[in-house]
Amino acid sequence: MRNKLGTFSEFTKALYPHELDYLVSIQRFSKPENLKILNLVLYNSKNPLNPILYDSSIDKRTYSYLKNWISETLDKVDVDKYYNWLLTIEQSVMSDSITAHEEDSLMEQISIINSAHYNFIRFYQVLQHYRDYLLVRNRIRYFTHVSEYLESYKKPYEKVQRLNNDMNNAAEHVIKQLTNNKDEYHRWEKLFKEIYYDSKLDGYTRYRAVVRLTILYYTNRDFEPLSEIYDHLDLHFKTDVFYSKRILANYYHNRAMMHSKLKELEVAEKYGFLSIRQKNSDFLFYLVSLCNILLRKKNYTLALQLMSESMPELKKSNSFHGKIGYASFYIKTLLANNLADRAESYATTYFESYKKEIFQYRWHLFITIYIQALLATEKYSKIVSLSRRYKLVAKEKQFLGKAAYLPIISWYTALAEYIECTLSKDAFKDVVLNNAKPAMETAYKSQRVFELLGLLELSIPDIIKEIREELK
After folding, report:
1. Residues 329/362, Cβ–Cβ less than 8 Å
2. End-to-end CA distance of the chain
């Protein structure tokens, strides 16, 4: 019995709170034990650090039944699983190999899927292919039903196609930071919000609007209205409107990042842990974000433990963008734990092994943290050599023209050159002040300036104090 409950316990640990809120809301159990257990699963999901043991006196068949019921119920409303089913049907249609059972299943869905269904767009497109398939075979009965559906939902389909094209155009402006005035900002915000709040639209289009609102608000450092969107979205995740484990994990990660920006670190940590409860293709990305939150909370030991335990996942990943990000934050975590020698050794080895990929994907992130490791081990000449060999200061100036970063590498290089006596004190101050003064115009950038000065202060406190005074 202990092993059986162990299996059930492991199964329930992977469930998300919103999944269980939904299950509790739709259950119609006749046996009180089922609801009792389900409520306990919900409690444990929301209180992972203080779980309550499951009652071993209850018949093991009850636990087995509940496990199957949870899996089957969630599978039925999982929009990703439904999308995969649609792809299978489409492949069968396009290859002229659709079975009678598949046709019956597809025809059953015609009476179920309306324009508000998450996968309405894809369903409509599959039916278009299926109608062509039926037409050439002169199968009038099914052809008539399919044609009636397509005609009935033609206008909603054309509308969401147009809205998605509008969002694509808007996203290009937002992502490339072309939204440089308030009118433009409010124009895109209005579009995205109108789409998201329109419950008659399909879930896919509405959730795309949420993603673009997230990017828009992040780009403009405007997190309060984003919080309102997420609070509204939170209620939807207790239903079947947007449900899939992938989307839920993404939502938890986005909330973690938002609360982190709002300096609500306890809440950010909670959502961060939810985002990594299951391992998906974005696991390393979510883990790095969580560990960054833990570093901000000064929980250095736990951050290092999580990153060290996840090293096997790093080897499985095929994304160099994700792998370089992970390696960078692993170095940062080692430094936070006063393991400077390990950090520098790992950074040097990684750089020599993946130099080409680093410069191709995320060079600024990695090189910045690599130099921090060299600073921590007082290898100033190596910083100067690295910077000159790869022309990092010039490369950074070009890079800064495309993104809102401060010239970190330029400052670090100047610091190393000053300590190595190849740059005067006044010249060093000029490098920092010339870049820092324009950034003081915005609260966010001025905060970043003083954070960077705090890092430089560890090496030359007196000079950094003088710079701080001049910036005030």
Report:
1. no
2. 68
